[in-house]
Automatic annotation (TrEMBL):
Transmembrane segments: none
Gene Ontology biological process terms in this record: apoptotic process; Wnt signaling pathway
A single MF term (Gene Ontology): oxidoreductase activity
Keywords on record: Apoptosis, Cytoplasm, Golgi apparatus, Lysosome, Mitochondrion, NADP, Oxidoreductase, Phosphoprotein, Repeat, Wnt signaling pathway
Name of the protein: WW domain-containing oxidoreductase
Subcellular location field: Cytoplasm; Golgi apparatus; Lysosome; Mitochondrion
Pfam family, one: WW
Listed Gene3D superfamilies: 2.20.70.10, NAD(P)-binding Rossmann-like Domain
Organism lineage: Eukaryota, Metazoa, Chordata, Craniata, Vertebrata
Residue ranges constituting the WW domain according to the UniProt record: 16-49, 57-90
Highest taxon of source: Eukaryota
InterPro entries for this protein: NAD(P)-bd_dom_sf (IPR036291), SDR_fam (IPR002347), WW_dom (IPR001202), WW_dom_sf (IPR036020)
């Protein structure tokens, strides 16, 4: 139940039920008002609770707002080919008092960002989703109804992550698939299996990474950090780009790092030096390899956006925060020590109790929305 509350999908509050003859509607900019058909009047306050409400978030995927000849707003659900005067966002209304222009900052959680978004038509793929930022990302998408695939190299860790999410919300559509970015063969196999399932792909989060790894070569003969953090993802996106295009609007999100600033890819003469990407052991420094791979993430994301955005696929790179206590530090004791000292001052993976309280106050749910639309006399199927 907690999961439903976080995601703005908790059970209907019965005190909110409208008396007979009343109807809930919303204005173009999402303010909820109440129409009393018997007395032919409208008001902003709920007839029972006296509270004012506002729709939260954007329209669900595939929906569009339009205005009819009489100036009345109606909603078109392009996926199910129907129209209704009921604003689907009314499934996620929040009290007027809480509606303040929201600014996201370093303390915002993934759940806050996606609050009240209905992602039930979306297929999301997150690499390295069995721990840390990837897990939190996958969990948040799943709690908002998306079909989430955790692409992980270790099946038992991946299954554990899947269970954690489904324990939180039994109906979460979440599954694990094997993907080892240190093997281009595994990337190809993954892409083939994914494509064979004929699923769309709306969001691809290239998140997996290793940091401070001792020097090693992958089975493809490339330095491991470079291949896992960048090349594996590069190959994966290449192989899935037609699926992304067919699923447009779609997006690729590359989890990079601020540390990309502490390196470059040019030699002493200022020429791009590709050999720096997969250096031999004697020229290897793990932090530098990580920083270079993260720089590649950004260059890749920006070029991908240039090429794919005309086809409806956007691409962004991000820095998730400094020294967040995940398992990224595990390969080097010094890094673990640094992360441990920094831990009280950095972003955490845990949902704060104040956020939980906020979610408690979220009012409506998608089941109520379904009830409304099925009972809505204005619903028509096109
Ligand atoms: N934490 C921070 O402070 C911080 C700061 C800046 C950027 N980032 C970025 O945030 C992203 C997530 O990192 P995190 O902090 O959440 O670290 P994390 O907890 O260590 O997560 C990394 C994930 O990548 C997976 N992975 C590693 N090698 C893989 C491979 N060969 N194939 C597939 N998956 C593989 C790991 O799986 P296993 O469990 O099997 O190893 C793990 O699930 C990374 O891109 C990182 O560079 C993190």
């Amino acid at each position: 139940m907690a999961a439903l509350k976080y995601a703005g999908m908790d059970d209907t509050d019965s005190e909110d039920e409208l008396p007979p003859g009343w109807e809930e509607r919303s204005t173009k900019d999402g303010w909820v008002y109440y129409a009393n058909h018997e007395e032919m009047k409208t008001q902003w306050e709920h007839p029972k609770t006296g509270k004012k409400k506002r729709c939260a978030g954007a329209l669900p995927y595939g929906w569009e707002q339009e205005t009819d000849d009489k100036g009345q707003i109606f909603y078109v659900d392009h996926i199910n080919k129907r129209t209704t005067y009921f604003d689907p966002r009314q499934a996620f209304t929040i009290e007027d008092l809480q509606v303040k222009p929201k600014r996201y900052d370093g303390n915002s959680t993934a759940l806050e960002i996606l609050h009240a978004r209905d992602l039930s038509d979306r297929v999301v793929l997150v690499t390295g989703a069995n721990s840390g930022i990837g897990f939190e990302t996958a969990r948040t998408f799943a709690l908002h109804g998306a079909h989430v695939i955790l692409a992980c190299r270790n099946q038992s860790r991946a299954s554990k992550a899947v269970s954690l999410i489904t324990e939180e919300w039994r109906k979460a559509r979440v599954e694990a698939m094997t993907l080892d970015l240190a093997s281009l063969r595994s990337v190809r196999e993954f892409a083939e299996i994914f494509k064979a399932r004929k699923l769309p792909l709306h969001i691809l989060v290239c998140n997996a990474a290793v940091c401070t790894q001792p020097w090693d070569l992958t089975e493809d003969g490339l330095e491991t950090t470079f291949q896992i953090c960048h090349l594996g993802h590069f190959h994966l996106v290449q192989l899935l780009q037609d699926v992304l295009r067919h699923s447009a609007p779609a997006r690729v999100v590359v989890v990079s790092s601020e540390s990309h600033r502490f390196t470059d890819l040019v030699d002493s003469c200022g020429k791009v030096e590709l050999n720096l990407l997969s250096p031999p052991q004697k020229e290897y420094w793990s932090m530098l390899a990580y920083n270079r791979a993260k720089l590649c993430n950004i260059l890749f994301s920006s070029e991908l956006h240039r090429r794919m955005s005309p086809h409806g696929v956007t691409c962004n790179a991000l820095h998730p925060g400094n020294m967040m206590y995940t398992s990224i530090h595990r390969s080097w004791w010094l890094m673990t020590l640094l992360f441990t000292f920094a831990r009280p001052f950095t972003k955490s993976m845990h949902v704060s109790s104040s956020l939980e309280e906020k979610r408690e106050e979220v009012r409506d749910d998608r089941e109520r929305y379904q009830l409304h639309t099925s009972a809505d006399p204005c619903v028509s199927h096109r």
